[in-house]
Design a protein that fits this description.
Layout: H1 2-18, E1 34-43, E2 46-56, E3 61-65, H2 72-80, E4 87-92, E5 95-96, E6 107-111, H3 122-126, H4 128-132, H5 137-150, H6 166-179, E7 184-188, H7 196-213, E8 216-221, H8 224-230, E9 233-238, E10 241-246, H9 248-253, H10 258-263, E11 268-274, E12 279-282, E13 285-288, E14 301-306, E15 311-315, E16 321-329, E17 332-338, E18 345-350, E19 362-367, E20 373-376
Parallel strand pairs: 3-8, 3-9, 6-7, 7-8
Antiparallel strand pairs: 1-2, 1-4, 4-5, 9-10, 11-12, 11-14, 12-13, 14-20, 15-19, 16-17, 16-19, 17-18
Amino acid sequence: MAEASQVEEAERVEVSKHGLSARADGGARSGVRVELVECERRFGAVAALDRLSLTIEPGELVALLGPSGCGKTTALRALAGLEQIDSGTVRIRGVDVTALPPHRRELGMVFQAYSLFPNMTAIDNVGFGLRLRKADAKSRRERAGDLLDLVGLAAQSERFPHELSGGQQQRVALARALAVEPRVLLLDEPLSALDAKVRAQLRDEIRRIQLELGITTLFVTHDQEEALSMADRVGVMAAGRLQQIGTPSEVYERPVNAFVAEFVGSVSRVPATVGRDASVEVLGRRVPLPPAQSAFAPGTVVDVLLRPEAFVVRADPYGLGVVTRRSFLGPVLHVAVAVPGQAEIVATLPATAGADIGVGVAVSVEPTGAPLFVTEQSAAVA
């Protein structure tokens, strides 16, 4: 018991010394730096986190993107203190919080499940954390009312959760997370249970509020559209490792490996042969290799990865391709083309250019420029 008391006292001193719990400004908090340094977490032989290092700058929104089981949620839970790491360090504003429990880390969390108290109104749900912190009823209600106004639900403050839509419930959950004025906001798949239209509206709302408050935010999602549209930087994870982190355009346009290229956005794999002068022959056309991949020897058989928008598709009675699927999406048209001896090619065209391109039509397919990424056919995807 004495040892436990010493640990508790050490935690209190560490937090107090660095001012993590202090309000010096009396107003809105600015963002703080967050760091995960060489973090490892294993479940038997499986490495959920494999020496993961990640820095989130003050006020930045970073999205962790990846398939199920890649470690993105484990990383968020490690930062929150809900998952004990086997080794490594977690820092918030330069303070080592690795050994601190969740309630001492000054975090706000929003999960996929709203977890609202069904017997409490929206305003009481939002004010619940303040009640635990012994705030008086008047200030608690004022603060909760301000936050409901911030998320656009002032008129619904006296409604119970069952009287709110899914999107409204998630807004209440967001307001509740912000009520305690956290230094860091953690969002774990908060929109995945909502329909597409509400999801798009709420992601814009979350981004607006995050920018308005300047709060450092980690957003975990498997939805690449959410990650690319909301984040300052996107981190793509696989097998407990950060494969790449960069701005949305960097990750989409300049992937560092085949896994990132194929996971973020859509690509077609097309067999090709490397020629001389740092070029590659794709679908009968010679195009340049990406600058970072110009070291392939001439004659090397490779797969080139190309985005749907990187093809020109034309109706051509002598073309080698045949359209197998066609999807009209307003201003654009998605077509799938079968080419003998190759995997299916998916292309995106302006809808006005595809009037004569229907299922069963013979077409020619050409790449418009350098591939997104090139990998030897025998190489495994990272």
